[in-house]
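Bit of a strange request maybe. I'm writing a small parser for structure token strings and I need a real example to test against, not something I typed by hand. Could someone generate the tokens for this chain?
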Amino acid sequence: MNYQWYPGHMTKAKRMMQEDMKLIDLVIELTDARVPLSSRNPDIDELGKNKARLILLNKSDLADERQNEVWAAYFKEKGYFTAKIDARSGAGMKQIQEIIREASKEKTERDRKRGILNRPVRAMVVGIPNVGKSTFINTFAGKACAKTGNKPGVTKGKQWIRLNKNVELLDTPGILWPKFEDQSVGLKLAVIGSIKDELLQTEELAMWIISFLRGRYAGFLSKRYQIEELGTEPEILEKIAFARGCRLKGDLPDYQKAAALLVDDLRSGKLGRITLECPETLS
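Reply from user aminoacidic:
Good idea to test on real output. This should exercise your parser:
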């Protein structure tokens, strides 16, 4: 299957972002901690060059904690400020204000030399659809000032949000990029829910999840569904179907329903804390 989703509003959003970058001191980029590299839009590096950069590993509560540490070190090594957060619960959010101050030191110093005092740091919040930008902004601001939704494409336009006298945030729509060079990137984004489900083949995602989990997280499927992880991917999906009562007439397994269940369980963290990529496999 070819994974792609690039509605027209994303082209407009990218042009708008390019224009707004002139007003910005800091780019805060949210990624999904389960796929920290695949959930980064490569266009952002080009758009945000010469700007201070903060990468937030959001939904870190759903990701493998060991891999969270590995990824944080990976991005720091590349010169980014980095933090692990869970915007929904607020975990890790207290450190953000201090990191913004640290990341904006050069800008503050330049302002001071030019006699400009107390100008707020202007930060642009960016990220692909469904990584939690609006939830992050609402939690950070302590009030519901950005629309939120658990489906991609909720934020369509930009909006400025003044957090306090020190920081102003510019919320932007989530944008993907026109073509995934590597289809495994599209597949992983489909698995975590950053591509609209209507465009996907759920059974294909389920087969990939089963294959991946048996290789990297053996025992997770057994624990969740009380099944043995033996056999081919379709055979295991059949076991999940029967274990969860996903049946068609004639006592046949309902593969579609079982696949949807498996994908939902992974996305919600019911299967356990899982990271779908790690730096050492991305050479």
